[in-house]
Amino acid sequence: MLISSASMGCGQDNNTSGNAYVNAHNNSQQSWAQIEAGAAHTLAIKSDGSLWAWGYNGDYQLGIGDKKDRNLPCQVGTDTKWKQVTCGATHTVAIKTNGTLWAWGDNSLGKLGTGNRVSQSTPIQVCADTNWKQIACGEDYTAAIKTDDTLWIWGKQLGLTDKHNIVHHILPVRVGTDTNWKQVAGGWHHILALKTDNTLWTWGYNHNGQLGLGDRNHRLTPTQVDTTTNWQNIMGGSDHTVALKTDGTLWVWGGNEAGKLGLGDTTVRISPTQVGTDTNWKQIACGGRCTFALKTDGTLWAWGWNTSGELGINDYKHRSVPTQIGIDRIWQKVIAGNTQTIAIETDGTLWAWGWNRSGQLGLGDWIDRYTPTKVGK
Fold it and tell me: What is the DSSP letter of 23?
């Protein structure tokens, strides 16, 4: 069963060749402020607070009222109060400026948090709370932090001591009693979270050491990673983790297929391992099998799997060490989906590359790219 409302027609889908997006986007001078990528769909918020979506839509994850793929950015409703958005494999969750939480897409495991398993083709509010602060999605779950620094999770549970990790919760459920959570990030099947004291905690699946705990044992509750108190930012991929420390150093652990840890080999790491010796890293992103990082000078670096050109380095060869891309640009933000990469330049323009068979690059076609290509005019 699907609850939906009428959607505005926009963009090119896989059955039409309309140009509604081109007219709407060319008339807007707003720059792109935030981006997020799912398995094969992309969401972005403009500086005016409007929300845009494109790519695969077979599970309603674009939030535009139908199941047609879009290969051009299409506005989600008309609201201009969107603050943050995050994507799972087949669902999307977002926060508005008033602190309310909204979700749409596939809900077979309760990952929308709406109290049922009914999929949604347009945004629907999650609970009535108005104090949501930060959100993250894994493949089949959603996690969020409230303004009181409590941590909540729903969908396929990975942090509530559920036996064998098979219980699904259809409403947000609090994780523990701590009130000092600062940031949460989702890998496909593992979760990472920082506390206000800059300690790092992980839980979930750990078959390739992606929890960074020195073993391969799964965890059902948050477990601290080492004893250091200078963790600053965290990101999770399919089975690997990337993190920044407050001193600007870059750390990795977990699966290392195609060298996605950036350590010059394909050996799995079960504990945090530093990438090189640089101390000027400032932002990180994980794809399914690749990794990206920005330095303080605005340069962008990539490594790992590259079969679909997702590294953006003008070929399809894997890299096992950080390799600079887009050398003629100064980058502000990068995000990675399963096989697509999206980045914002310092001038607010949006760029995309990688796999594009569902239109997830937003370039108006279904052609893959292996170098950064500008989205829109």
Answer: H
Residue 193 near residue 181, CB atoms below 8 Å: yes
**What is the C-alpha separation between 158 and 168, in angstroms, rounded?**
9
Residue 230: closest CA among 250, 210, 212, 211: 250
- In angstroms, the Cα distances linking 302 to 112, 324, 374 are 32, 6, 18
Is pLDDT of 32 > 70?
yes
pLDDT-based confidence at residue 361 (cuts at 50, 70, 90): very high
CA–CA distance, 306 with 316 (Å, rounded to integer): 5
Residues facing 243 on adjacent strands: 234, 251
β partners of residue 374: 351
Residue 270 to residues 214, 216, 254, 326, Cα–Cα distance (Å): 5, 7, 6, 32
Give SS3 for 324: strand
- Rounded CA-CA distance 136/130 in Å is 17
- HSE (CB half, 13 Å, CA atoms) of 91? 34
202 torsion bin: left (phi>0), alpha (psi -120 to 50), beta (else): beta
Residue 163 main-chain phi, psi, to 5 deg: -60, 125
**b/e 292-317 (16+ beta carbons within 10 angstroms → b):** bbbbeeebbbbbbbbbbbbbbbeeee
* Residue 292: C-alpha distances to residues 6, 149, 272, 288 (Å): 38, 28, 17, 11
User: Residue 206 to residues 106, 158, 160, 190, 214: CA-CA distances in angstroms?
Assistant: 25, 11, 16, 7, 10
| Residue type at 143 in one-letter notation | A
With bands split at pLDDT 50, 70 and 90, how would you rate the model's confidence at 162?
low
- Tokens representing residue 332 in the block: 């502000």
Tally DSSP H helices, then E strands, for the chain: 1, 29
Confirm whether pTM is higher than 0.85: yes
Asked if 180 and 121 count as a contact pair (C-beta separation under 8 A), the reply is: no
Give residue-wise pLDDT tens across range 108-154: 999 999 999 999 999 999 999 999 999 999 999 999 999 999 999 99
User: In the sheet where 250-254 sits, what is the strand order?
Assistant: 231-236, 240-245, 250-254, 269-274
Bridge partners of residue 74, in order along the sequence: 53
